[in-house]
Design goal:
Helix content: over 70%
Structural class: mainly alpha
Strand content: under 5%
Number of strands: 0
CATH topology: Sodium/glucose cotransporter
Largest sheet: none
Distance between the termini: 59 Å
Shape: globular
Number of helices: 20
Order of helices and strands: HHHHHHHHHHHHHHHHHHHH
CATH class: Mainly Alpha
CATH superfamily: Sodium/glucose cotransporter
Radius of gyration: 23 Å
Length: 509
């Protein structure tokens, strides 16, 4: 029987990830192990796990596709993400690790808010948990769509069959191994992603005969499509640039990324983790932009091969590797796309399930639940949230970037300002936190409608839409400050805990 090299290497990768899940299962002893890995991650795993859980299928499909369609003007999102990620590592990572430990060793963000805000913490915790479940379910559906598109291309299945198969692959090892499985596999997945994103544009350039030919083909594409692909500000307004760069604000409020900071072994880990993480992220984003950009020249030179990308520009990476590499390498590179999808989706499923278990089941239904019971409830929660996300992802016309942008904005506006205020201003009150989460989340949900129906799509004289994270972040920040400044002051206990955490952070820093 003849072996299909692509299917063989792809299947080997899936078995490897499953093996990691089984190994992590053996090391998972309690609920803390399952959702935060026992707070034992070193700098390498912290960095690569944070990066891989952040950069989903959007990195290998959505971003190259948008660059291929509209040129380098679409790279402003990547620029904003780099800036936001750097300041998230710099300002939030170490402080959050220490503050959550001081706050009764909080395992989730809602749990942190509960212990940080005293009497008002219960309601803050509930609203925060509801927001996490809402936006993570939407976020998970984007990963399901990306996985379904990948499995459709590999196995030539119907969209529905591919959706179920790709979801099963991620759900299995998340269900079995929890946080340790997700974090360990993230390290492998991040390496695969970097390999694929650096190798592919190099191969495109070599296949065309060098950079001069790449430029020549891009100039022909400019004349053909009347798009200045090389111009970073072509046909793009100031509002659009601001909206793209504002993606960076979202980092301060992403629970699945913040969980990696909480799981590090100490605040000392963050300096090396930041260097590793930012280097990895820069190279990956550079590679993704390069794939989209030089992909323009490739398909201009080979129009007979462009049917797939003309139909769906987000398939550009998959189409390119099929034309550029031998079947054995194709299996490895397709595994890199699956790695991007699985790493983020698994992190999101785990965070949503831990929220459902810790912040609802344990807090309100079964305070006396054993550690073993909580672990199994988290596993069942993974299944529940997966089924809902699959339901949303059934529409194969969903845009990966569109689903990600709404969920990213939701988290960034609901939690970003609150995290910053909580870590830097001890006068932040529980009522202010509650209002800040609510205002930020609702603004993201209703801003697009308000902008279209009330403002008639015009912002400061521009007709381009303003990304909803901007008004959401601003209104949430103002709400927190006003309510904290004019409301009842925080308790002495809260101030002491805040000062204690800051002293400990400066010692560990």
């Amino acid at each position: 029987m003849q072996i299909n090299p692509t299917l063989f290497t792809f299947s080997f990768y899936l078995l490897l990830i499953l093996g990691i899940g089984i190994l992590a299962y053996r090391k998972t002893k309690n609920f803390s192990d399952y959702i935060l890995g026992g707070r034992s991650l070193g700098p390498l795993v912290t960095a690569l796990s944070a990066g891989a859980s952040d950069m989903s299928g959007w990195l290998l499909m959505g971003l190259p596709g948008s660059i291929f369609k509209s040129g380098l003007a679409q790279s402003w999102i990547a620029i904003g993400l780099l800036i936001g990620a750097y300041f998230n590592w710099r300002l939030v990572a170490g402080r959050l690790r220490v503050h959550t430990e001081i706050s009764n060793n909080a395992l989730t963000l809602p749990d942190f808010f509960l212990h940080r805000f005293g009497d008002d913490g219960k309601l803050v915790k509930t609203i925060a948990a509801l927001a996490i479940l809402l936006f993570f379910t939407l976020y998970c559906s984007s990963g399901m769509v990306a996985g379904a598109q990948l499995f459709t291309a590999i196995f030539h299945l119907s969209y529905f069959q591919a959706l179920l198969l790709s979801a099963l692959a991620t759900i299995t090892y998340t269900f079995i191994g929890g946080f340790l499985a997700v974090s360990w596999s993230d390290t492998i997945q991040a390496t695969l992603m970097l390999f694929a994103l650096i190798l592919t544009p190099i191969m495109i350039i070599l296949s065309l005969g060098g950079w001069d030919e790449v430029n020549a083909q891009i100039q022909l594409a400019v004349q053909t499509h009347q798009i200045a692909y090389s111009n970073i500000i072509h046909n793009i307004s100031l509002i659009t640039i601001i909206s793209a760069v504002a993606w960076g604000l979202g980092y301060f409020g992403q629970p699945h990324i913040l969980a990696r900071f909480m799981a590090a072994d100490s605040a000392k880990t963050m300096r090396n983790a930041r260097r590793i993480g930012m280097t990895w992220m820069f190279l990956c984003l550079l590679g993704a932009v390069a794939i989209g950009y030089v992909g323009i020249s490739y398909f201009q030179a080979h129009p007979d091969q462009a049917a797939g990308v003309n139909k769906n520009n987000e398939m550009i990476f998959i189409e390119l590797i099929h034309y550029l590499f031998n079947p054995w390498v194709i299996g490895i590179l397709l595994s890199a796309i699956l790695a991007a999808v699985m790493s983020t989706l698994s992190a999101q499923l785990l965070m949503a399930s831990s929220t459902l278990t810790q912040d609802f089941y344990h807090s309100y239904l079964r305070r006396s639940a054993s550690q073993r019971e909580l672990v199994w409830m988290s596993r069942l929660a993974v299944l529940l949230i997966s089924f809902i996300a699959i339901g949303i992802a059934l529409d194969e016309n969903n845009s990966i970037l569109g689903l990600v942008s709404r969920a990213w904005a939701g988290f960034g506006a609901a939690f970003g300002p609150l995290i910053l205020f909580t870590l830097f201003w001890k006068k932040t009150t529980g009522k202010a936190a509650l209002i800040g989460i609510t205002v930020g989340g609702l603004t993201v949900i209703f801003w697009p409608v308000f902008q279209e129906q009330v403002l008639h799509g015009v912002i400061f004289g521009y007709r381009e839409p303003l990304y909803e994270i901007i008004p959401g972040f601003i209104f949430s920040s103002i709400s927190i400050w006003l309510c904290s400044h004019f409301g009842r002051p925080v308790s002495k206990h809260t101030k002491v805990a805040f000062d204690t955490a800051n002293v400990l952070y400066r010692k560990e820093k």
